[in-house]
Design goal:
single chain; 463 residues; alpha+beta; Peroxisomal Thiolase, Chain A, domain 1; OB fold (Dihydrolipoamide Acetyltransferase, E2P); 2 domains; nine-stranded mixed beta sheet; globular
Length: 463
């Protein structure tokens, strides 16, 4: 059967200790911390950076599916943006899966159907979520932000699919209408007992019957974890050993990452899975999806794994900084940023997949692509070249005057590997750590919202 060829993740570097949330509202801390997207991150940028963490660009996907409950647009596809960043051909199939917490696993099932039906040989499933909880609510300590990506194909790769099962169920557990900014839920244990426990119990029985497996044969079980205690009762009722079989949910360190959570936990499980290990993944929301996988034991290329990204972090100093990131604090400011759809269309190859130019005469790589070479002034035009996404800091300045939710704004010039010099902003880095020749990597971010839409480009951060 089909399988997972590669897995990647994107964990924001900022953390908000739950004790700061509790202190702000005079409540009780649930312990630990949660991952908070920077002010220049959203569900799309997290999904893009998780995709870049997959490593090699080959093999290229024939389809791109984006999964989230917090799409950056109500009416505009995000999967098409991801495909453009990856420099995929226009023939690629793109689709967004939204409005349910099982969007991630549903996108995986749709990808498997596309591969089985022959409409795609490889499908990229990229997920990102940045759910905003209502201030001074129990949910505020629960929700965290993250991104995850899976590349699926007809070969087993890292893990082959053994069986799948899905259930649709009309149950008003957690919801958010177009007019509501924050997720809502009926108070108490109503959803856990009559929704979560019932539906996940049914989907577990269904997928194990299809796979002809006993619960004890599973090496790792991935269950949605809105709170640390929620999966325990389901695991016990299903005959699972919670301590031995349940995958770490990262709730204490990252929080409930929504539609991303099952895929993020799967990426972590694959990093340490042995050949033959059976892994069960479950997604929940208006029903449930279940997928049984058999790990091949193929090593995952060294890189930014989930555990490593959790370790590399910056702690927010106050609840106020978090409130500024999330625009919970309203400020009347005048922005000088200018943009238009015409500019985005004209410069789309430079802005998203990051193309520059190379002089055919002297070989100098430069960005942006000019008519004349900046080095030898050759007037015959430049050859198109894709720029590297790693480099060294050439020079910088810390700007304390520009308005920013995370001051100061560090403007930098980066010498990219393979040639080219790029002027960008630094992000995810304390100003006192910035130094000449430090190693940097480019990260896809939201620059501003001029023109009434999201303007995306690249920033740099420490490797």
């Amino acid at each position: 059967m089909a399988g997972i060829l590669a897995a990647g993740s994107s964990v924001p570097r900022y953390r908000l200790p739950r004790e700061l949330i509790a202190k702000e509202w005079g409540g009780t801390s649930a312990g630990g911390e949660k991952a908070v997207a920077n002010h220049d991150e959203d569900s799309l940028t997290l999904a893009v950076n998780a995709t870049l963490a997959l490593g090699s660009e080959d093999p290229r996907p024939d389809a791109v599916f984006f999964a989230t409950t917090t799409a950056p647009y109500v009416e505009k596809q995000a999967a098409a943006t991801i495909a453009t960043v990856l420099d995929l051909p226009a023939s690629v199939r793109t689709l967004d899966f939204t409005d349910t917490l099982r969007a991630g696993t549903s996108a995986v099932l749709a990808a498997l159907d596309a591969i089985a039906g022959g409409s795609a040989a490889r499908v990229l499933v990229a997920a990102g979520d940045c759910r905003l909880a209502e201030p001074d609510s129990p949910t505020e300590q629960n929700l965290g932000d993250a991104g995850a990506a899976l590349l699926l194909g007809a070969d087993p790769g890292l893990a082959e699919v053994v069986a799948t099962h899905t259930i649709a169920d009309e149950f008003l557990g957690t919801w958010r209408t177009r007019e509501q900014e924050f997720p809502r839920a009926f108070p108490g244990a109503f959803e856990a007992k009559f929704g979560y426990g019932r539906v996940i119990g049914e989907v577990l029985k269904g997928v194990l019957a299809k796979a002809q497996l006993e619960p004890r044969q599973l090496a790792t079980v991935i269950l949605p974890t809105p709170t640390p205690r929620t999966p325990q009762a389901v695991a016990k009722a299903a005959g699972l050993d919670a301590k031995r079989q349940l995958q770490e949910s990262f709730w204490t360190t990252l929080g409930d990452t929504g539609a991303v959570q099952p895929l993020l936990m799967l990426a972590a499980a694959l990093e340490c899975a042995k050949a033959g290990d059976l892994i069960l993944v479950v997604g929940y929301g208006d029903g449930a999806d279940a997928i049984v996988l058999r790990a091949t034991g193929r090593p995952i290329p060294a890189g930014q794994g989930v555990a490593r990204q959790i370790e590399v972090k910056r702690t927010l100093p106050s609840y106020g900084r978090y409130a500024r990131f999330r625009k919970l604090v309203r400020k009347e400011t005048v922005t000088s940023d200018v943009s238009s759809p015409v500019i985005l269309w004209r410069d789309r190859k430079e802005l998203l997949p990051l193309y520059g130019g190379r002089c055919p005469r002297c070989g100098t790589v430069q960005f942006p692509k000019h008519r004349l070479c900046v080095e030898c002034a050759d007037p015959n035009g430049l050859e198109e070249v894709k720029l590297a996404r790693r480099g060294r800091l050439f020079t910088f300045t810390n700007d304390y005057l520009t308005e920013s939710p995370d001051p100061p704004v560090t403007h930098a010039v980066v010498d990219l590997d393979g040639g080219g010099r790029l002027y960008v902003q630094l992000t995810d880095c304390e100003p006192e750590r910035v130094e000449i020749d430090m190693l940097l990597e480019l990260t896809f971010r939201k620059i501003h919202e001029a023109g009434g839409f999201n303007n995306y480009f690249w920033k740099a951060r420490p490797q």
